[in-house]
Amino acid sequence: MNPIENKRTATELKSKMSAIQKMVPGNASLNHEVAIPEFGPTDLLLKPLYSGICTTDLHVLYHGMGREEFPLTMGHEVSAVVVGVGEQVDSYVGTNRKIKVGDRVTVEPLFPCGKCDPCLKGRINLCPDMSHLGIFDEGAYADYVSVPSHRTHRLPEGVSDLAGTFIEPLSCAINFIDRSQLKPGNSVVILGGGSIGQMTVQVALASGAGQVILSEPVAKKRELALKLGAHAVIDPINENLVERVKELTDGIGASIVIECVGVPATVSQMLNLVKRGGRCVLAGAPVKPVEMNFLPLWYGEVELVAAHATAWQFPRAMKLIENGLVDVEAALERVVPFSEGVNALEEAYKSNEIGKLVIQHNG
Ligand SMILES: [Zn+2]
Ligand SMILES: [Zn+2]
User: Quick one: which ligand is closest to 115's CA?
Assistant: First the structure.
């Protein structure tokens, strides 16, 4: 790609764009006079096609992550088309093929510093100095977004524009399963049937789980999990969760418990559902302090680990989608136009009945 041509691509763009921005905590608005982001020599300028709304976005909007600046353009689950290529961009993660204008891509939204102890050990999702698309850096709910080229992946033919927005959450679900050290035949209890919980059900099945049990209070989410292949579902409001799990696991508890909600009521249950010698994964963000009885952890030598975001799982997520092993769109509630994105964020925050909402950008 001729760098001069690249520069022209950028300057031919309008000077202003529309973006959904967090203005103050709890308040987002669709602004039309936002400057188009600059892109440096190793960056790509992208035109987003679809952007997912996830719990993290709601957390960013309503509670904040501590060090963001306002106004902040939100959004980090994105499929996009490349419209500008920095002069020094020659390759990208996972392939040696050059990226070019017109390629469809998705973005690994976590931008690690590359210099700290966890980064140097390859554990980039633990970087204390990370930046993050749509959280600390300008995000994808916009007509254009600039990203470091090495954090992008070209979408395979078999992954649609819409499915491309699910690669990031699916990668998180794969990380949950990686952290669980699931072995073929293991029994797995998943707490929470939101879209990430439904993906975790599917990844557990694709990884050879012998029994997958989902606990979820919303009936339609339980039904969806059964449709996706879960072996049993539990309504934790009207059934005794601990007794039901014991019944379903020959009285000993599950090999693995994965908590995908992050609220004290579910986090504190994990140790009552896992068998002695089993493993619990805290995958939901525990934003409030949790009181727990650790006695079962101690006498059962239970391993309790956490799973935070994603690192290195994107290529595997794309393969699972491409080869039909996971149906990422199963938990999709509906696609909303960009002009209604602000309302969609509010709707997602207010109702835990609805599934995933995805924003469609303007053509
Ligand atoms: Zn997300
Ligand atoms: Zn780092």
Answer: 2
- The answer to whether 275 and 252 are in contact (CB under 8 A) is yes
In the CATH scheme, what is the code of domain 3-154+327-360? 3.90.180.10
Tell me what pLDDT residue 234 has: 98
Distance CA 163, CA 53 (A): 13
Question: 177 CA to middle of ligand 2, Å?
Answer: 23
Domain residue ranges in the chain:
3-154+327-360, 170-306
Cα–ligand 2 centroid distance for 278 (angstroms): 31
152 is annotated as an active-site residue: no
Residues of the chain with pLDDT under 50: 1-8
200 catalytic? Reply is no
User: What is the tens place of the pLDDT at every residue in 306-349?
Assistant: 999 999 999 999 999 999 999 999 989 999 999 999 999 999 99
DSSP 3-state of 304: strand
Please give the CATH topology (third level) of the domain spanning 170-306. Rossmann fold (3.40.50)
User: Which one from 9, 59, 150, 308 is the annotated catalytic residue?
Assistant: 59
- DSSP states along 113-149: -SSSHHHHTT-GGG-TT-EEBTTTB--SSBS-EEEEG
Choose, from 55, 56, 165, 249, the residue flagged as catalytic. 56
Q: How far is the CA of 275 from the centre of ligand 1 (A)?
A: 30
What is the structure's pLDDT at 358?
A: 98
User: Ligand 1 centroid to 277 CA: how many Å?
Assistant: 31
The tens digit of pLDDT for each residue in 210-245 reads: 999 999 999 999 999 999 999 999 999 999 999 999
Residue 85 C-alpha to ligand 1 middle, in angstroms?
A: 25
| Predicted pLDDT at 95 | 63
What's residue 45's pLDDT? 96
